[in-house]
Amino acid sequence: MSRTETIVAPATGQGGAIAVIRVSGNEAFDVTDKIFRSRRGRVADADGYTILYGSVMDGDQTLDDVLVSVFRAPHSYTGENSVEISCHASTYIVRRLVELLINAGARAASAGEFTQRAFVNGKMDLSQAEAVADMIASASQADHRIALNQMRGGFSRDLAELRAELLKITSLLELELDFSEEDVEFADRTTMRQLLVQTQAKIGSLANSFQLGNALKNGVAVAIVGAPNVGKSTLLNRLLNDDRAMVSDVAGTTRDVIEEYCTIDGVRFRFMDTAGIRTTDDRLEQMGIDRTHNAIERADVVVQVAETDGEMTTIECAAPVIKVLNKCDKSGRAAGQVDGSTVLLSAKMGEGVDALRAMLRGVVDTERLESGSTVVSNMRHYSALRSASEAVEQALAGIDSGLTSDMLSEEVREVLFHLGEITGEITTDETLGNIFANFCIGK
Fold first, then answer.
1. Are 32 and 85 in contact (CB under 8 A)?
2. Residue 36: per-residue pLDDT
């Protein structure tokens, strides 16, 4: 991927009234001027942060009347000279406009290339660049807040503080090497150990937030389980306000896990309607029941549905269990929350379902997110934090065993290496390629 060529791509999707074409690179202004005419003059002569009104010319014919926004380096998204052309969102106009810009000297941008250039040009670090993609893909308020905090540098600041403390240690250790013949110790080992213990606690806190972040990003997994004909599918349909699952009086109607998403109070949930659990000789039904047990193992929350207290069996799982006594319209009992883990409702009539929604939302502790603290949601970041934590363990063991200054310095630098992988201070072209390949074209 050349970092000097001028690139172009649509920055908006289909379906709207207006489309935006983005151009970035050293020749962005000259390329645009070859097809754009304005009474206010050339794009190349315009000040940054100005907008020119004019026409895009296809030979002697006008293709469209447009607005051209001008961004001069380094004050642009990519850090390069950039232009954003707002035109009518006709499929033909967008396609032809991109073709004209390519003919004028630009080339089609690859996936994520604008953001990759922003990273290369120091406009953002790698964790912030990844947050751009997460921001675009966010499907709930909680997911959006995680991405926004990371994109604005919240995670980067946490890592910078950790790296600053670790760099102090390595500088003192390397100073000892310069005075090795004097047998002096600039880095007090007790103080160093305390600092590493504090560092490990901070890294551990960030790593531990991944469980919450991953659930919020991909949807909190909720397995709806119980015996056949207790109303699991009816409950799913009521939670979704949609007839998504087939409902029947015939036991064993649900043979496979059905997954659907729903947002409750800003948090996205991934509901899994499962096959009823019972003893059966039907091989196909048994396969569905096996998948039910698998869904329970993967769930962040289990909703166990029954008609009476006596039908509630013990479910062995690590996730919290919410017990639902369904069909209260038949039993004559009042709908609503019974205690912290049980709710009475009628999925068919919709009574008590709001109480279940409140209980589900209460299971997800978003206090850390609401306080503005960093929540890790990226598997790559989590893996790097785990590796950094292991490296800290090695450094602590080195202090306890009386490791020499040069060897201790290497152990601490290993921690710095893994933290640097997150922000992109330590990276490879292969890593960058894998990350930005998942971006959309135009971003």
1. yes
2. 98
What pairing do the DSSP bridges indicate for beta strands 301-306 and 342-344? unpaired
Strand-by-strand arrangement of the 107-108 sheet: 36-37, 50-58, 61-71, 82-88, 18-24, 7-10, 107-108
Alpha-carbon gap, residue 36 to 62, rounded angstroms: 10
**DSSP structure string for 353-383:** HHHHHHHHHHHS--HHHHTT------HHHHH
> Tell me, what's the pLDDT at 441?
84
Question: Is the CB of residue 145 less than 8 Å from the CB of residue 270?
Answer: no
Burial of 293 (0-12, 13-18, 19+ CB in 10 A): middle
Q: Is 0.70 surpassed by the pTM of this model?
A: yes
CB-CB neighbours of 349 under 10 Å: 14
Nearest CA among 90, 83, 97 for reference residue 14: 90
Residue 112 DSSP class: T
Which one-letter amino acid corresponds to residue 409?
Answer: S
Residue 82's pLDDT is 98
> Residue 335: pLDDT above 80?
yes
d(CA 68, CA 64): 12
Across 286-327, the runs of DSSP E, i.e. the strands, are 301-306, 321-325
3-state helix, strand and coil shares in percent for the chain, rounded to the nearest 5: 45, 20, 35
pLDDT at 261: 92
- The C-alpha atoms of residue 48 and residue 110 are separated, in whole angstroms, by 26
The pLDDT, as a whole number, for residue 65 is 98
Helix axes 126-137, 429-436, angle to 10 degrees: 20
The angle, 0 to 180 degrees and rounded to 10, between the axes of the packed helices 154-178 and 126-137 is 160
